[in-house]
Predict the 3D structure of the following.
Amino acid sequence: MDLQIEELPALQGATLSLREQQGYSLADICNILEVSESNVRVLLHRARNSLFLCIEHFQKTGECCTR
């Protein structure tokens, strides 16, 4: 798929990578990125939603999504 973590907005990509790939806790991510916990939750939601929408598009059409 064309939409990859690197193609997400910087903070969304970093948050998703830190949480899902590297296993950091929300508190650790807050400290690393210097943002509030509520902001981390929003960033995770938006990043996951973008990826899920891309996957859904691929499942329906068989085509990669574009930004």
Observations:
- Residues 37-61 form the longest helix (25 residues).
